[in-house]
Write a structure and sequence with these properties.
By secondary structure, the protein is α/β, with parallel strands linked by helices. It is 41% helix and 16% strand. The chain has ten helices and ten strands. The chain binds flavin mononucleotide and iron/sulfur cluster (SF4) (2 copies).
Length: 364
C-alpha cells in the first residue's frame, strides 16, 4: 500500500485522537467493484466487513454494463471505495467507462484498491503489479471532483488463463492469504484515517501507454480468440454472466463481441471448462496481420502526390490494417470457427489442460 502522513481531508475534531477518522453517526461507505473471477469482489467484501464492524453502513454493488444502478448512492456516501482488477495495467474498460460517467462530487472522498495477479515460486508468493491501473482510476475520479485519499494494491492469484496457467490450489490458497492481508491492512489504514497521496513512479507512467493499447486493441484481440469446444452444453451461463455484455448465444453457441473487457470470467468459470483460446485462431490472426502490414507498405501511392500527402496516405494505409483485422478478418475467422467441419480444428488450444481459477465462494 502506498501511503504518507499528510493530513486527511476531513475536518479536525477534538473528540478523536490525532490521525484517527472522526466517528460520526451513520457514516456511509459505498463500495463499487468490478471483478472477473472474484478476487476484487472478495477484497470489496473483506473491506466492507471491516467497516461494518466499525458501525459504518456499507453498500456494495457490482459495476456491470447491464446494471445501471451502480452510480446510485455514491453521492450520499461519506466514502467511496473502488475495487477492480488490473487488466493490462489498466482498470477494465467497463470500469473506465463507468468512472467517466460517475456523478461529480467536489471534495467527495474516494479510495481505490486494485487487485493484481500474484503467483507462487520458490516457497513464497510473488506479488502482481497493477502499473497505471489504480492511478488512471484516481485521475478519472479527480476529473469529476473527487479527492482520492487512499490507493493500494492487493495481490491475489493471477487469473489470466489466456496467458498463463493459474497457480495450483495449494499455492492459490497462500496467495489469497497474502491478498486478504493486503486488503485488510488497506482497510485498517483507511478506517484509521491514514491518508495516502501516492506519487506515480516513472514505471507506472510508462505502463500507462501499454494500458491505453490494451484497452483499445489488446482486450478486443483476446476476445477474437475465444471458442467453445465440443463439451459446451449451450447452457448460456457465460452470456448471462459476462459483466461487459460481450457474449450472445447464436444457434446454441456463445459468440464473443469486441465489447469484451478480457476479464477472463467466462473462460475460467464456464461450468464445463469448454471455453478455449484457440491456437489455430492465434496462428491465422498472425498470418493475416503480417499480410495486412506488408500490403500497407506495398500498396503504391501515386507519385503525383506531393511529399506530405504521400506520407499521410501511407500512414492512413498502415492505420487501416488493424481496422481491417478487427472488422473483416476477425468476424470471418469467428464465423468459420463455429462451422462444423472446422470447429474441431479451431478448438485446438494450448490452454486446454490449464487449471481454471475462481476465488473461493465466488458465484456471480
Ligand atoms: C487480461 C488480463 C490482464 C491482466 N493484467 C494484469 C496486470 O497488468 N498486472 C497484474 O498484476 N495482474 C494482471 N492480471 C491478473 C489479474 O489482475 C488478477 O488475477 C486479479 O486478481 C483478478 O481479479 P478478479 O478476480 O477480481 O478479476 C491480468 C489478468 C487478465 C485476465
Ligand atoms: S461455453 Fe460454457 S457457459 Fe457458455 S454456453 Fe457453453 S457450457 Fe455454458
Ligand atoms: S466475454 Fe468473457 S472475458 Fe470478455 S468481458 Fe465477458 S466474461 Fe469477461
Amino acid at each position: 500500500m502506498h501511503s504518507n502522513n499528510s493530513a486527511p481531508p476531513w475536518p479536525a475534531c477534538s473528540c478523536v485522537p490525532a490521525g484517527s477518522r472522526p466517528i460520526l453517526i451513520s457514516m456511509k461507505l459505498a463500495i463499487r467493484y468490478h471483478s472477473g473471477t472474484g478476487n476484487s469482489a472478495r477484497a470489496a467484501a473483506l473491506i466492507g466487513g471491516q467497516f461494518s464492524a466499525l458501525a459504518w453502513s456499507v453498500d456494495v454493488r457490482e459495476i456491470r454494463r447491464d446494471l445501471p444502478d451502480a452510480c446510485d448512492g455514491v453521492l450520499d456516501a461519506d466514502l467511496l471505495l473502488l475495487a477492480f482488477p488490473a487488466l493490462g495495467f489498466s482498470p477494465s474498460a467497463t470500469m473506465v467507462a463507468w468512472l467517466r460517467g460517475i456523478p461529480r462530487k467536489t471534495g467527495g472522498e474516494a479510495a481505490i484498491i486494485c487487485c493484481t495477479g500474484g503467483d507462487y515460486a520458490k516457497g513464497s508468493s510473488i506479488g502482481g503489479w497493477g502499473g497505471d491501473a489504480p492511478y488512471l482510476a484516481a485521475r478519472l475520479l479527480r476529473k469529476r471532483g473527487w479527492v482520492v485519499t487512499a490507493l493500494g494494491e492487493a495481490s491475489y492469484p493471477v487469473n489470466w488463463i489466456q496467458a498463463m496457467n493459474p497457480p495450483e490450489q495449494s499455492y492459490a490458497r497462500e496467495i489469497i492469504k497474502r491478498g486478504d492481508a493486503e486488503a485488510s491492512a488497506f482497510a485498517a489504514g483507511l478506517a484509521g484515517g491514514s491518508s495516502a497521496n501516492p506519487r506515480e513512479s516513472l514505471a507506472r507512467r510508462v505502463s500507462g501507454a501499454v494500458s491505453v493499447l490494451f484497452r483499445l486493441a489488446g482486450r478486443r484481440f483476446f476476445s477474437t480468440l475465444f471458442v467453445a469446444d465440443a463439451t459446451c452444453t449451450s447452457c448460456g451461463w457465460c452470456a448471462r454472466s459476462c459483466p461487459a455484455g460481450a457474449i450472445t448465444m447464436k444457434k446454441g453457441l456463445p459468440r464473443w463481441s469486441l465489447r469484451c473487457d478480457s476479464c477472463n470470467r467466462c473462460v475460467n468459470l464456464c461450468p464445463t471448462g469448454s471455453i478455449q483460446s484457440s491456437s489455430v485462431l492465434i496462428g491465422l490472426h498472425l498470418v493475416a496481420a503480417i499480410i495486412l502490414a506488408i500490403a500497407a507498405f506495398a500498396v503504391p501511392v501515386p507519385e503525383s502526390f506531393p511529399g506530405y500527402a504521400r506520407a499521410i496516405a501511407r500512414i492512413l494505409l498502415i492505420a487501416l490494417s488493424p481496422v481491417l483485422q478487427f472488422s473483416l478478418v476477425a468476424p470471418l475467422l469467428g464465423a468459420l470457427a463455429v462451422v462444423n467441419p472446422f470447429r474441431r480444428v479451431f478448438s485446438r488450444s494450448f490452454m486446454k489442460d490449464f487449471r481454471r481459477y475462481r476465488a473461493p465462494g465466488f458465484r456471480p
